[in-house]
Design goal:
The protein is mostly helical. It has one domain. The protein contains six helices and no strands. The termini are far apart. The model has no long low-confidence stretch (mean pLDDT about 90). Keywords: Membrane, Transmembrane, Transmembrane helix.
Length: about 150
Amino acid sequence: MNIKLSTVLLLLVLSVTDAYLLAHPNLIGKIGILVYKHSYIKTFPKALVTVLLVVGISLLIAELLYRFTGYKKATLSYGVLLSISVFWFGYVFVTFSSFSYRITGKAFIYGAHLLPIILIGLFGRYLVKTQLHLRKKTELATSEDSKKMAS
């Protein structure tokens, strides 16, 4: 199986799982969704579209950065995006540790935590991939330039 295909399948499975978890809170969670007007996760199809949009746009941004920017700019961008994802996970963790969210059901809480974790994995993978691949490309180009200048 191609690595890219397996990555896309993993993201798809995680996204469907996250949407399912977000769309199935307990009774108190359903009341909270109605009161706070979180219509984007009210049903499974809406939650699935929301999660797939977030993951898809993030994957598109990561892939565009990888293909069309240099080593330093890509590394900095992935670092910033990874930091935002980690901060978002911390925010979700603190928010869902409060009493009012703790009673919304374990599935809903796990679903809320899963989306930032998916993004941390995605941007972390691209950061490592950039470090390994683009650094080699930059070093090869630099060594070829120095050979040309020497001759």
